[in-house]
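wait is this the right file?? whatever heres the structure
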């Protein structure tokens, strides 16, 4: 029987397979180290992704809080001006001097709180 190219190729591959089995113990260690390294790379990548996500969420939350406080301070400024003017009108005209004084004091307290908060925000 004449050997064909397919049978010679199969014989060559089988021979290479048998030769490669000679160092199975060393290759097993290399495969284990490679798998362990791949696992550690995947885990560290997931950890970095989680850290970036949490840092982004934290930055977004701080930005939202800061913008909310700035809006509240702006509303408080408009309110203490309106309260102060209304209190001044009520007190000066004598329509309700007692209520006018209370509105003026409330406007002063609100102004102090708003301006201190604005100073703390920077």
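ok assuming it is, sequence goes like this
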């Amino acid at each position: 029987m004449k050997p064909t190219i397919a049978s010679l190729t199969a014989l060559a591959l089988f021979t290479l397979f048998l030769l490669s089995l000679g160092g199975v113990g060393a290759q097993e260690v290399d495969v284990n180290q490679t798998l362990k390294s791949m696992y550690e790379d995947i885990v560290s990548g997931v950890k970095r992704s989680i850290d970036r996500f949490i840092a982004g969420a934290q930055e977004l939350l701080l930005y939202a809080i800061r913008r909310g406080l700035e809006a509240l301070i702006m509303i408080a400024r408009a309110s203490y001006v309106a309260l102060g003017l209304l209190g001044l009108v009520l007190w000066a005209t004598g329509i309700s001097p007692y209520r006018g004084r209370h509105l003026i004091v409330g406007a002063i307290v609100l102004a102090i709180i708003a301006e201190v908060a604005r100073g703390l925000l920077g």
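The helical segments are 5-20, 24-93, 97-121. so i think its the right one actually
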